């Protein structure tokens, strides 16, 4: 199960500038490292105590362009036409959708507004795919060579870390109880026949001589879990006393989960009160960054 690494921390920049009258102006950015998106490429983050916001409106790229990549690739797009704003407010707190309305709320009172235009802003997108089978991707590197693409137990053309059914028995891995825990790893994975091969990698789970995927004498639907001759024991593929065989003719449809991670770095930032060569705006949090694709392996 591959998950992108998301580290939660605070961006804290304490910068001092001399004003014309000799006083010291202190500017502190204290925002979380995630941001939101609204409308046509408006990216923003807000905070309370005190109420402040950072936002950037991008004019020269399309949001859809950030998703034009395949798994394992990294895409970089640079915007050169944009406006960055740092604002302060008299409000005790700010609405979560502050930048999502064409008509600003009359209850929001801006006290200061500083802007910087056409700052080269770099969007970096990565796409992570996973089968969500309950096993961390790094533990599906069976040969231990660091390459997840060449571990394909059932030879169906889908590497194990993307394969919902690692052993090709038409019983999804998550159903075969790999029982992964951080403390014990896969030490407690279900092994019905006690042959030291966990069920999720075993093509004959009950060791009755009939392949699990061929134990479909009740409902021939590429799903052995619903073929049950003895309800007291369970599915036939886990019952060593049932030998009925109906040869499988196809694999089940697989669903591969996709997660996009989009980060933004703003360079050459030049506000009236702040100059910054590189400013890490953070990582986009948006439900649209999760998707999926499906495929059925050739049998």
Automatic annotation (TrEMBL):
<dbReference type="InterPro" id="IPR028974">
    <property type="entry name" value="TSP_type-3_rpt"/>
</dbReference>
<feature type="compositionally biased region" description="Acidic residues">
    <location>
        <begin position="192"/>
        <end position="209"/>
    </location>
</feature>
<feature type="region of interest" description="Disordered">
    <location>
        <begin position="127"/>
        <end position="233"/>
    </location>
</feature>
<protein>
    <recommendedName>
        <fullName>Calcium-binding protein</fullName>
    </recommendedName>
</protein>
<feature type="compositionally biased region" description="Acidic residues">
    <location>
        <begin position="128"/>
        <end position="155"/>
    </location>
</feature>
